[in-house]
Amino acid sequence: MRGEDRSSDLPDLITSEQLSVLNMIALLASSHRRIWRGLQI
Question: Which of 10, 19, 20, 41 makes the best surface tag, with the fewest CB within 10 Å?
């Protein structure tokens, strides 16, 4: 039972808001790379 409790604690640490923020950062990083490539050309 304790093992299941520990696994249930993980979702609490990673909230939907944090996931959305990580997604935004990933999109910004990819967009910045494209912009830098465009400037170099």
Answer: 41
